[in-house]
Specification:
Katanin_C-terminal, cytoplasm, cytoskeleton, 3 helices, Katanin p80 subunit C-terminal domain-containing protein, single chain, microtubule binding, mainly alpha
């Protein structure tokens, strides 16, 4: 019984650690690429055939949709204490700010 409890504690610790690393990584990615994503989404479509611009627009649209999914999943994580909760709240505030931006699509 003691071994099971120890295994459970170790698993919870590593799950929290992985979750925090994921949140911090997403936060850094959003901070780094949000300007590119939203400038691409808010720009006018190219007049001529520009395959690179079309691919960039498609990638940015997918990224925006994924950020919306991440934002929806953060609600329960923001209620947690510790590093996971702190990271989730910071990411949630950044995403809320991004989604309120008039240039976002």
């Amino acid at each position: 019984m003691v071994i099971f409890g120890l295994i459970q504690v170790v698993c919870v610790f590593y799950a929290r650690r992985h979750l925090n690393v994921a949140l911090v990584t997403i936060l850094k990615l959003v901070k780094s690429f949000r300007a590119s994503i939203f400038s691409t989404l808010s720009s006018t479509p190219p007049v001529s055939v520009d395959l690179e611009a079309e691919h960039r627009l498609e990638r940015c649209s997918i990224c925006f949709q994924e950020l919306e999914k991440i934002n929806a999943g953060l609600i329960s994580l923001t209620r947690r204490e510790g590093k996971v909760g702190r990271s989730a709240r910071e990411l949630s505030l950044l995403l809320q700010d991004i989604f309120k931006t008039p240039s976002s699509v």
